[in-house]
Amino acid sequence: MLQFLATLLIAIELPAGAAPPALPLEHFPSRLHAFVWRNWQITPLERMAATVDAEPEEIAALGHSLGLAGPPPVSDKQWRRSHITVIRANWHLLPYEQLLTLLDWSPEQLAYTLQEDDFLFVKLGRLKPACEPINFAPPDEEASARAARVAETLREVFPSGVGATEEPLFHFVEELSTAPTSLESSSPEEKNSSPRFCYSYFALYGDPLVDRSLDPYPDGYLARLRAAGVNGIWLQGVLFKLTRFPWDPTLSEGYETRLRNLNALIARAKRHGIGVYLYLNEPRSMPVAWFAGREELQGVVEGDYAALCTSHPDVQRYLREGAAAIVRAAPDLAGMFTITASENLTNCWSHHHGAGCPRCTKRQPTEVIAEVNALLAEGIRSAGAKTQLIAWDWGWQEAWAPAAISKLPKEAALMSVSEWSLPINRGGIATTVGEYSISAVGPGPRATAHWRIAQDAGLKAFAKIQAGTTWELGSAPYLPALNKVAEHAERLRAVGVDGVMLGWSLGGYPSPNLEVAGLVLDGEPAEVALKSVARRRYGERYAPKILAAWREFSAALDEYPYHVGVVYTSPHQVGPANLLWPTPTGYKATMVGIPYDDLDSWRGVYPPEVFAEQFGKVADGFDRGAASLRAAADAARGDCREPLLDEWRVAEAAAIQFRSAANQARFVMARDRLATGPSGADADACLDELATLLNAETELARRLYQLQIRDSRLGFEATNHYFYTPMDLAEKALNCRYLLDQWLPRERAKLADDKVEPATAP
Q: Which of these, 699, 684, 694, 696, lies nearest to 740 by C-alpha position?
């Protein structure tokens, strides 16, 4: 079987990149034990057993020898929702052949997922670590003894056990799919509100319309979003998956089904007063090999992929007719929004390298970018639809923007990220906002300038914000800094934008944030909206406590060490689940993926000490607010108690993850100082600091574990699935204990040897 898969892999050419050696996991008795551990809560026993040529009973026995309870059942729906979590967990364990067996996928399916599921291969570092196959064999005496020591560690750190959960992973999907109760629903007064749309909290990103059993927007969830003030939803569309791809129709298999499912979703959403928007990033690039015999279509090349050149008449026809086909099949589609100068390689100027195309080098980037939007608008118009085209200026160079906006079709809207280019100063370091932010309140100079140009040209102006959460903490269902959100919405209302995109792939949980944003955008003063939501959700008695906590969280975010490098690569997304290493791994932190120990990437423009200090300050503020919420929840009775506990868990998890980012930075700094060979008191202080940090990280992992086994929302984001699972947090405890028991004693022994004076000759 593995030989057959290896032959297929050669044909498909799954990406490997530099393929460095996989990282050793010395806190486990063997790689087989690590495989069982990491898959315990996320993969059915039968799939694990098939992957390593074992029986399910043998896999279960190995897990039990490590002290694990269960394993918990993995439902079919959970399994189909968790492929990114499974891939990440096994990235440093399994070669591609065994990963395909584990997933029960074809190489084509994995190749598509790595390329199109929101840059998954980028999030994994653009490389596949080289892994030897794992084959089952009964553990020897040494491995069994080490497994017993692991079990003993678990009993010490987690007395109530590890392996089972009180609330299964993905349980929130079931909860959100049910109709809201009267307590949960605000029953907002119906208003002719401007468009405000968000993404599903749990949709599968890569191909969300192919399987109706994994509905991205169940009716109960739509009702909850509408109650929170949302009147629009969006999902990704890939043109060759929604229409017939003229050059290779096999790639479009199932497109009629997707269009039917899209139209059915539009009809259901409409009954809730919600419009559906489609995100298009087109035309998608194709493997260079695909252009053999189609060379006239090829544009610029990036790595193994090349653009379908939009200056070619056949590609232009494909865009125009593709848009028309979609809206003819789904005439009530509320809108399409585009990204034309970033994300995937699409048009030849999309990554600013159009000079590499013999056709596009003769054209201005503004002409090409505006033309892509115009072709889609022509398609919509030719089909007689009222679908709104929204051109998002994401990635447009500043020099391009005025001309590109002026060339857009007049029926289009221009969307800008509101907070971009805001000047900020955190910890004495001056920088500007260049990614999504709640901590920095827009609108900033870039957006206001672009909106002004658009309005002068007769176009509508849309704002892109993050009302729920941002990559400042993408693994939280929402970031409860509601004063920041309310202030931003109030400023947007003042400048008169025509619509608001409330979030990218993160932030779609029906949170108090969305509700406050909606009320303020509809005209309520910020303070009035905050009090109204606090009273409705948590009761008159506890509203003051909630309002005080929201103020505390908002003030804490003023200290956030904001920078695009920080939000994308810092370990705050995974918090204490990120492993610590006694020597540098050599791996670079990846985009909202795997942080490793790459402090230089984590910190962006901030000096290491400032980076750690600022995250510590944010954690201090969240600790204070969370403590206040916990006290309120402990005092509460009746219907208010559970909502207060839910709010506390979100805040407590955020505090833990911010604190862990500071700890991890300090650990890397101390580890690297130790490697330079300090002596005497300096070396002792360094070792003591490392021990303190290892114990602190163990405690944070334990606390976050206790939260996540009771709240399946924590750690989840739609395009990353689970940034961490309870097993990851428990593994961190093993990792820290191994370093405390094995590594630090060796380092202390070296120090003691260095202190021994050499004998003096008589």
A: 694
* CB atoms inside a 10 Å sphere around CB 717: 24
CA nearest 454: which of 500, 419, 413? 413
Residue 424: strand pairing partners: 431
Alpha helix (H) residue ranges in 359-495: 365-382, 401-407, 445-456, 482-495
Question: Is the CB of residue 722 less than 8 Å from the CB of residue 82?
Answer: yes
Q: What is the pLDDT of residues 706-730, one digit of tens each?
A: 999 999 999 999 999 999 999 999 9
Q: At what angle do helices 45-52 and 56-65 cross, to 10 degrees?
A: 100
Helical pair 96-103 and 45-52, crossing angle rounded to 10 deg? 150
The model's pLDDT over 592-635, given as tens digits with 9 standing for 90+, comes to 999 999 999 999 999 999 999 999 999 999 999 999 999 999 99
Partner residues linked to 722 by β-bridges: 716
Place of tokens 């968790």: 82
Q: Which two tokens stand for residue 492?
A: 């947007």
Half-sphere exposure of 680 (CA within 13 A, CB side): 1
Quick check: helix, strand or coil at residue 320? helix
Which one, of 184, 180, 178, lies nearest residue 536 by Cα?
A: 184
Q: Token pair of 340, please?
A: 């034309």
pLDDT at 5: 42
The low-confidence residues of the chain, meaning pLDDT below 50, are 1-10, 187, 761-762
pTM of the entire predicted model = 0.94
